[in-house]
Amino acid sequence: MKIKKILNNNAFITHTDDHQELIVIGKAVAYGKHVNEEVDESKIYKTFAPVSRGDRKLILDMINDIPIQFFQIAKRIVDKAQADDQIDLTDSVYIALTDHIASAVDRAKEHLFLTNQFIWEIRSFYPKEFSIGLWALQLIEQQCGVPLPEDEAGFIAIHIISGELGNRLDDFQAVVNFIKKLTSIVTYQLAIDIDRESLDYNRFVTHLKFFWQYMMYNNEKQSIGDLSNDMLAIIKGKKVAAYECALKIKTFIHQTYNYDLSNEDLLYMTIHIVRITENTGRQHDEV
């Protein structure tokens, strides 16, 4: 890979064979180098192919303003999310995380901390992403010597969630409210307290997140696991209470989002409701 323009010791611009511009970042990757010289590619952390002038300016400004250490930290967080948890993320997450972490560390040094008003929802509805956020706090403390509060784990999780949602960060609050409302319908309709730490509830929440994506953006439907045995139990056991609860949800979704659940949607919703309620011991007797 040849240098076309040096930005600083840790960044340079090059071009692909088809003349696409790439911004390359790596610790000391351009140190002592000159234009048209080859670089040691093992030093490269990340390459960006900006799709707009705005993206290009943002990346270049960050390279000038933010120490390379934070680019490396952000990459390790993104790599962990993608490798360990199979979360597919956009490049915009890397940029946003780098900027956020650098700002959070600067604020912490001044004893200024932000409160995350969604911390409970993130911990409850996005446990996988929140666990990555907690891991990130340990990494940041190791690398920067600055401890950050759990609120920051929530903010890091939000950036990861944003990447999963295709950078539609506004969707985060909408999805959270959607999950909260449907959960409250189940708890009220069936007069139960749901174990929000249970695997079945986690599957229910995951199903709702996928369903939201499909409902709002016509993405490909995704189901969680093999539900064939559960379908048979619904048919044989006549889980009327759960089915009636699913009908309440269908009505709510139609009235609120003008979306009609298909029979398949209704069946899957019923199955998940059965799963999260049948072991509580307080579900109403079914007809």
Q: Could you provide a short overview of the structure?
A:
With 287 residues, the chain is an alpha+beta fold. 60% of the residues lie in helices and 7% in strands.
Describe this structure in words.
- With 287 residues, this protein is an alpha+beta fold.
- The protein has three domains: 48 residues, CAT RNA-binding domain (Transcription Regulation, Sacy, Chain A, Roll), CATH 2.30.24.10; 97 residues, PRD domain (PTS-regulatory domain, PRD); 108 residues, PTS-regulatory domain, PRD, CATH 1.10.1790.10.
- Helix content is 60%, strand content 7%.
- The protein has eleven helices and four strands; from the N terminus they run ββββααααααααααα.
- The protein has a four-stranded antiparallel sheet, covered by helices on one side.
- α2 runs antiparallel to α5, α3 runs antiparallel to α6 and α5 crosses α6.
- The longest helix is centred in the middle third of the chain and has 21 residues.
- It starts with a strand and ends in a 10-residue tail after the last helix.
- The C terminus is likely disordered.
